[in-house]
Amino acid sequence: MAKTSYSCSACGASFSKWSGRCDGCGEWNSITEDKGLSKGGPASKSLGMRRGKTIPLSDLATEETPPPRTCCGVGELDRVLGGGLVPASAILVGGDPGIGKSTLLLQAAAQFARSGLKTIYVSGEEASAQVRMRAQRLGLAEAPVKLAAETNLRDILTTLEAERPQLAIIDSIQTMWADHVDSAPGSVSQVRAAAHELTTFAKTNGISIIMVGHVTKEGQIAGPRVVEHMVDTVLYFEGERGHQFRILRAVKNRFGPADEIGVFEMTGGGLSEVRNPSALFLSERGTPSPGSVVFSGIEGTRPVLVEMQALVAPSPHSQPRRAVVGWDSSRLAMILAVLEARCGIPFAGLDVYLNVAGGMKISEPAADLAVAAALLSAREDTALPADTVVFGEISLSGALRPAPQTENRLKEAQKLGFTAAIAPSGGKSVAVSGLAVRQASDLAGFVGEYFGAG
To answer: Is the pTM of this model over 0.85?
Structure first.
């Protein structure tokens, strides 16, 4: 049988029996019987009778100024962070092994330290001498960054509490181990516990913490997805090892736009930012050839032009191949089905290969029309004009839907020397000087006009 308890409604003091006057605050007739917080379940597994403190509540309207941001001077990194580093924020950076995560964060640590932030870099994967060698190679040896090599979470938090830095970089979260968790470092329990302790420490002490996270072969952060829910910002560092381009993509950001990207180029002296990624992605584009179409896309808040490459060839196998790099394979299957069902253009018995040039990954539906144009160009062995960009979403009925931010797409194309654009009709009419916009209402009309079919 649960023991009855009493509390004062004025001051919250608890008593084992009722009395007329509270000994804590002196109020009369303020002591009432506690009904308990939990109404069901076993007593050992529920909140029981004991009450907590009353938390202060506030209105939605506030006069608090937004938290100040610190810019590191690397424009692409500041852009992805939403305008700079927010105090007391927890940031998770993931990426494939060897993609350049440690190089990027060491460069970022040096820049933040030079801008006035007290910065500590904690490496759990490399010795201090290895980090110093990288710093010398990158020309960062003189940066005022404090360095440590440690994996014991308790020792790291104790050091951070004593040093009181404004920014701490943990490389990586999978190497940290908490002595109160009975499992090996890198296990789900250890990763969850370490991320929780570091995030809580960042919030309570006003320290910004950047954590490096390994990724699985599926491309997700290794460990529980709850780690991504704990932190404020999740960044993925993407790129192909065969390309010098690296893309830092925000997939979650509580302080700025998600899906923002920053583009870097890997050089012998580290990562250098690319201020005009469209020109870089199109730099290797030569004479227009069948299967090559330029797509004007939007990544976060910036327009980016990339080349969509397609190859269609007779298949020697009974089951034709469908290979995609940088785009959604399910979306490609849908485009092929719409072309056959609505336009009468079959791809049966043909191998289809689709590639986004430069190692870029495209996810927006506005790339549908550019992909369809590349497929038809490769199938019919007909090249579109070199000065033309294409964008638009294709519906299952074969209709073309207008893409958002049409004006920004067209302005970026005009800035890079393109003189024509193919876009869906029905959207907001936008005129850009020096750029002729040709509109199409449906896929069949587009195919008939540019490829003589449909």
So the answer is: no
